[in-house]
Amino acid sequence: MGQATYGSELLGRTLAGVPDDASPLTHMAVIDSRSAQFTDWPDWVHPAVRDAVVEHGVQRPWRHQSDAATLAAEGRHVCICTGTASGKSLAYQLPVLTAFARDPNTTALYLSPTKALGTDQLRSVAQLIAGRSEFSHLAPSSYDGDTDSDLRQWARMHSRWIFTNPDMLQIGITSTHPRWRAFFAKLKYIVVDECHHYRGVFGSHTALVLQRTLRIARKYGADPVVIGASATVSNPAQALSRLIGEDVVAVTEDASPHGARTVALWEPGFLDEAKGENDAPVRRSAGSEAARLLADFVIEGARTLCFVRSRRGVELTAVRAKQILAESAPELVPRVAAYRAGYLADDRRTLEHAISDGELLGVATTNALELGVDISGLDAVVVAGYPGTVASFWQQAGRAGRRGEGSIVVMVARDDPLDTYLVHHPDALLKRSVEATVTDPTNPYVLAPHMLCAAAEFPLTEEEVVAFHAQQVVADLTAEGKLKRRKAGWYAAAGLDPHGDIDIRGGIGGQILIVDATTSRLLGTVDTARAMTSVYPGAVYLHQGESFVIDELDLDDGLALAHPEEPDWTTSAREVSDVTIIATHDQRVFGPLTVASVSVEVTNQVVGFLRKALSGEILDSVPLDLPEHTLTTRAVMYTLTPEAMIDAGIALDKFPGALHAAEHAAIGMLGLVATCDRWDIGGLSSALHPGTGLPTVFVYDGYPGGAGFADRGYEAFTDWISATDVAVSSCGCTAGCPSCVQSPKCGNGNEPLDKEHAVTLLRLISRLHA
């Protein structure tokens, strides 16, 4: 079978017997194969390093590997941005191992966003240097949440190359830097793997952790070179530069080979009987469709990964695929499994080996297997729901075709505006450049705790405060008594534990402990800002494959109590909001239309939650009485004059429904231009907002101080609104559904919504803004 036909023939067998007018396939394309471009070994590479790499099967490097490695060896911060399976690891292994071979006291730090990736890269290095005397002193070691205390102590004392993640760098290394003094004093390289993953609030926190790490190393006399690696990121030099606060050069031309890849887009059909909110039609779930594809591909002998967005979804998809196989090919049931974060380390390693050696044919996984774990020889990838960014889509797609042979990628759309838009407008996914990562390390809610950490590590000088853009933050912390000004600079006040107070994965504010009331076991934590939308009484909470229902939320004591339960339904919070404009940062006026970037104060109140069957059908709405929560954040806002709306054909009594529907759709579509999910943002529409005196729509970041998403919406307003118009107008429903204007978190029960006039409104805005 030829490369270019592998995917289409596999898909054809899967769709055998399905009439063309009932086919869920909306688009299919073939990405041509590419040949390798090799180069000679750079002269600076130590012979022992070159020999080790050659012994492991790499006779000559690809050009991008050599170029990036040489830049790093010359002392330049560098970001290598090439495709999945393009050997980016070698680009940092060459300079790092050469430094070790020439100076046994050199140290290096490797940083990854996931434990699985860090463990995989550590294993790769250990295999590369095994049995070589030049590296007997190296002792590469992991230092993460899976590492027990004795091994951590050994690693700190003996390892020259530490493999960790931003969380442990923050809580376990920078906080105790005097104990790491010898390591920091000889720190030559810092590797930041999969750096496109550091975006939003997590990226902003990681940027400040990295900048503080560089500061600590330089205080001890070192001057590390940073090597970033990413398969997919727009403007990689700028992305890594924002993380480390210094100039970076990028290597982006991929010289590695890959086989032909078929990409298919798939839209599940509507369920015959089920009705959603306000009797809207309900599509078959992406998870159930993905399970069917996973089972079909396994039956065809295709080694397949199926990416699912949630941990619960992963488990359900694997179970459903096994049920299908039990009916048609029972001998294959043991060859399908689930993989996700939350499993014990030994269980994860076992599964990774089983995937790599072909013992498992099909695996449902979260994005835990998206990032860099070396899994070779896969034939197919199923993506159940757009993963939020074009970067993540190609990262997941790149898991297939690692033998240089033909492969297939199928993206199954969820019942969501952005998913629906993409499967009907394939160029927006397949031909669009990957997004720029959105980070904002100057967000005062993120910056303030890191300035406390920096001052606790070493006194903050005036020059450093300016470099961190933290003048106002430091002044505020000093006024609060948390920083003390002395001759040498600012010191952290006694008694503070600033390192332990930061949740770099995105939480800001106090923490709510989630506890199993039947066993007193701590299940996890959630920051106060998100507690009322995730652990309200009656909410279904998932923890490492176990399902719980929340019984009580005590905000004063910081406690959410739960009991184990496996309901056949899910929950989603309904909230109402009020928005007050605090400041206008920039605005553009287009006659009757004004578009602005503003700071706002959002008052949210969770008023209830929906219970949904796993099919997506609404079971009921449960009211709640929870306190209001105030959030200061950034928003993109637009206003229109009533006269312009009336002239466009929107009667006065249609204003609320048109604005509300347009707001919902815009929230669902913001992910097209910003690296965010609809759950990262919120919105409000008003036919007469008191702050503007006009019909107004706000879309705001769901994080204190903002996360950069609304700012990106302001910058890309034309593309965003135009795509929103297309998404709504091309949806096949008549009066609005979850694929266009309905929102799963609307506090008003998705009323009023006027799809027809929302299209008119969006086209008016596009025409005025053109």
UniProtKB/TrEMBL annotation:
Pfam families: DEAD, Helicase_C, MZB, WHD_HRQ1. Residues 293-445 form the Helicase C-terminal domain. Residues 69-251 form the Helicase ATP-binding domain. GO terms for molecular function: helicase activity. It comes from the Bacteria. The keyword Transmembrane helix does not apply. Keywords: ATP-binding, Helicase, Hydrolase, Nucleotide-binding. SMART domains: DEXDc (SM00487), HELICc (SM00490). This is DEAD/DEAH box helicase.
